């Protein structure tokens, strides 16, 4: 009887605690009457020759077709002869930026209150280009690649994100005083984009100083944009500021607005199948997904309910010092919608 449009999104429940926390997301979406229809895909037990990994070609087609997806954690298979899942996703879907909002959860005390920042990491080049070799015995070389194209693209995304989310400032994080050419080009690209956004304050902060400022007073930052290696480290540092990986969502952004959101944590094999996992990180990732789709109303509704449920403190999961099961926490959250 509903005439409104539903959007199809790809869902990878993943493994370990993945299916449990994905169930929580599905139940919350159902209760909040979110107009999303899930297309579920699981990773295979054998390598799909078309992707060279355990991710099937059909699942990649699903994300490309829908342009939007949510991913649970996946076990990184050990052994040779196939590409890592993350590498496959990044390459197949052209995921060039990784976005991590870090927001203090009121009522859950950590060393810092009032953290509200977003890290945006270039995800395709820099020191992670995989170009390493031995020059002569005892001497190795690793190439750091920075291109105008990739730097411009991530800078554009950072400013676009800041504008869309009503944020005031973008800080480019760098070491251009030493890496004059590579980080210099990265900064140059950020400056060019900054000029197109006169309403957003732009600043440049050297990475070492940035680390000190973050641990002294994270409220000094708003949106941070940076090359790959710095982003890898700083984004985990920021997750630590708000209480760990279990509360941190992330988004991977590709060309033409494609987005695949995921929790930052892994499959938690120690608690898998025990109804103990905290679904918050995946739920917050699903909130990012809704915001990306412009579905701000259900995003806000689910987000407030998460904050309220954790703040009340009655139904917290074990990782947050409580005794609630995944199901009990999910039910409390639904009651708070
Ligand atoms: P992990 O994040 O799975 O677990 C680290 C610790 O945090 C464990 O004690 C775990 O119980 C706890 N934890 C994590 N998420 C939790 C949650 N939602 N609720 C409650 N507790 C939670 O890291 P790990 O043990 O290093 O990795 C396990 C597996 O996950 C490995 O195969 C690894 O490769 C994979 N992994 C996958 C991804 C991904 O798919 N994006 C990311 C990281 C690790």
Structure description:
The chain is an alpha/beta fold. The protein is 38% helix and 19% strand. It has helices spanning 18-31, 57-66, 85-93, 148-164, 182-194, 207-216, 228-241, 280-292, 296-312, 326-335; strands at residues 7-12, 36-40, 68-71, 97-103, 116-122, 132-136, 139-142, 169-174, 201-206, 223-226, 249-253, 259-263. The chain has a ten-stranded mixed beta sheet with strand order 2-1-3-12-11-4-5-10-8-9, sandwiched between helices. A two-stranded antiparallel ribbon has the order 6-7. The chain is globular, with a radius of gyration of 20 Å. The two termini are 23 Å apart. The model has no long low-confidence stretch (mean pLDDT 94). Bound molecules: nicotinamide-adenine-dinucleotide (NAD). Residues 17, 73-76, 245-246, 262, 265-271, 277-278, 281, 319 line the site of nicotinamide-adenine-dinucleotide.
Compose a concise summary of this entry.
By secondary structure, this protein is an alpha/beta fold. The protein is built from ten helices and twelve strands. A hairpin with a 5-residue loop joins strand 11 and strand 12.
SS strand fraction: 15-25%
Heteromolecules bound: nicotinamide-adenine-dinucleotide
- Helix tally equals 10
SSE-based structural type: alpha/beta
Uncertain runs are none
N to C succession of SSEs: EHEHEHEEEEHEHEHEHEEHHH
Mean pLDDT: 94
**Share of helix, binned:** 25-40%
**Strands, count:** 12
Please list the strands of the largest sheet in the order they lie side by side: 2-1-3-12-11-4-5-10-8-9
What coarse outline follows from CA principal-axis ratios?
globular
Gyration radius, rounded: 20 Å
In angstroms, what separates the terminal alpha carbons? 23 Å
The multimeric state of the shown protein is single chain
Largest sheet, described in full? Answer: 10 strands, mixed
